[in-house]
Design a protein that fits this description.
single chain, 314 residues, mainly alpha, 81% helix, elongated
Length: 314
């Protein structure tokens, strides 16, 4: 085999392990698969010398950054996350926007994904703002109407970074921008052609609307949040995608609890309690410990608000 064939074979093997890490049923399996992916992407660099095949070298570094970001998040290793930043920056150093726009765009997006993890991990507003900027710049690599799904993915990821920024900084303007990004992304998605993307974007939109409604004390935004989450949940089958269904259900319960508390609506709060319990029953495995803890806490708060409302009414 020649170096080009070896590079393709190694990249394919690494992508397979990266997908396995993303879909792993438990934390140990995810760490094992992500570790393999990191090693294989590093091996791929040996078959794509920067002097001979700079764009292949850049693609290897971009995917290495993605794998390092996932592994660093799984094991909570900030040094590994900083390695991911350097790997994405290495890709950008040899893949200019002017001559390799899609390679540049993917590397810029990979860099943004690392800053999201760093920002969420440490509550770092500068990192979250940098992540949002990276995704906005990544759009330049996918111009016009030629790359609608790539552009939608960048918009959704920018929305996620802005939503985190708005939540951590208590910034309604960032949340409004996130909502705009999600709605723009939905123009490229449909429940028939891109069901997973369409569902996830609706769920994320609901979360951003709920946060904005809470920050601005706006019942209309909270109602829109419930509606967006209901659309998302209706498109997910708990039998075939239990974890995705549970996370979407949690978003709906959060929106219902916020609306019920603000509007003094016991029915909303009762439904929130029911949906939280259903989500907790579906959130299994060690990878979801944090999500279960948050859902249990929110369930307790919703129950307390419902009890107080019923006591007042009685």
């Amino acid at each position: 085999m020649n170096a080009v064939t070896d590079w393709h074979r190694t990249m394919e093997a690494a992508e397979t392990r990266l997908r396995a890490a993303e879909l792993a049923p438990d934390l140990d399996a995810a760490i094992s698969a992500a570790t393999d992916a990191v090693r294989q992407f590093r091996d791929a660099l040996d078959f794509a010398p920067v002097a001979d095949t700079p764009l292949d070298w850049a693609e290897s570094h971009t995917r290495l950054a993605v794998a390092l970001r996932l592994l660093g998040a799984l094991v909570d290793d900030v040094v590994m996350l900083q390695d991911a930043v350097r790997s994405a920056q290495a890709a950008l150093s040899v893949a200019p926007l002017a001559t390799a726009p899609q390679v540049w765009g993917r590397a810029r997006a990979a860099l943004g994904s690392v800053y999201v993890v760093l920002g969420e991990r440490d509550g770092d507003l500068a990192a979250l703002a940098e992540a949002a900027a990276c995704y906005a710049e990544a759009l330049e690599g996918f111009p016009g109407q030629d790359f609608p799904l790539d552009r939608a993915r960048m918009l959704r990821n920018r929305g996620a970074a802005l939503s985190l920024l708005g939540e951590v900084a208590n910034d309604p303007d960032a949340l409004s921008d996130a909502i705009g990004c999600y709605r723009a992304a939905l123009e490229a998605y449909s429940p028939a052609a891109t069901p997973a993307d369409w569902t996830l974007t609706h769920s994320n939109l609901g979360q951003a609307l709920r946060l904005l409604g809470e920050q601005t004390d706006d019942t209309r935004r909270l109602t829109e949040a419930v509606e967006a989450c209901e659309v998302a949940l209706a498109a997910v089958a708990p039998e075939t995608a239990p974890q995705e269904w549970a996370m979407t259900a949690t978003n709906l319960a959060n929106a219902l609890a916020a609306l019920g508390a603000r509007a003094g609506d016991a029915g909303c709060l009762r439904r929130a309690v029911t949906v939280y319990r259903q989500a907790l029953a579906a959130l299994g495995g060690p990878r979801w410990l944090r999500q279960r803890a948050i859902a249990r806490h929110n369930l307790s708060r919703a129950g307390e608000k419902l009890a107080a409302l019923e006591a007042t009414a009685g």
